[in-house]
Amino acid sequence: MNKLLTLLFSTFLIGCCNEPKLLNNGLTRKATQITEYTIKVDNNSLNNKAQDTLVITQKVYNDNDQIISRHQQNLFSNETMDIEFIYNNEKKIKREILKLSNDSSNFFVDYFYKDTLLLKTKSESLNDIFQFKQIGEYKYSSNNKLKESSLKQTYIDVETNDTVANTLETNKHNNKEFVIESKLFDFKKPEQNRKTKYQYDCNILMETKEYDSKNSLISTTKYKYEFDKFENWVKRESIENDTLKYIRTREIEYK
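Given the sequence above, the corresponding structure tokens read:
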């Protein structure tokens, strides 16, 4: 009997986790800013690990724990991207204004709702080189939980009117609205089609598996974390096929 009770108690502990309550900023506490560093790890000819910072991203939040601006430095291409987030009277995002350092024009993403549920996002822009269209759509369960989402993107060459790129990404979400499976369809290059499955533990992404257009497994990525005293991760290692590929760190400025 004692062995049975011990087994049941152990199973209970393994099957449960202490999930911290997350705010709109994805953290357990209010913050003014998060600075993220994406670092690529390579093994050189001497089998030594070389680290190269690819991207630095700064996110700023308002008093409602909602993101209001995002500044991204792409060090590998010497470019920057800035996004401003505009909210409506119901404190829902109604527009994103995106500015690229290598383009004089602004890009807009507009959000459309039915009651409080986001139904569609839409973006369309035109310059001397290409025309870009993007449409996102969202579907919900009977209890108003997000269950499916999709994002379609099209690039058209202005001079030739040829479709340069045409892709559709579809996502399935679990009852906590986390993505559990995504599929990328490339209608110009079907051989580039991909499927990715996501595995979580206590709301923390632990593993992704990527499959090619023939549904063959091509990579498994596992994630290893370090957390601060508020249970927010400050370091995440991406280990692809047993090799450390990327390190992502976060500096969180709490209120």
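The first strand starts at residue 31 and ends at 43. Try to locate this feature in the token string yourself.
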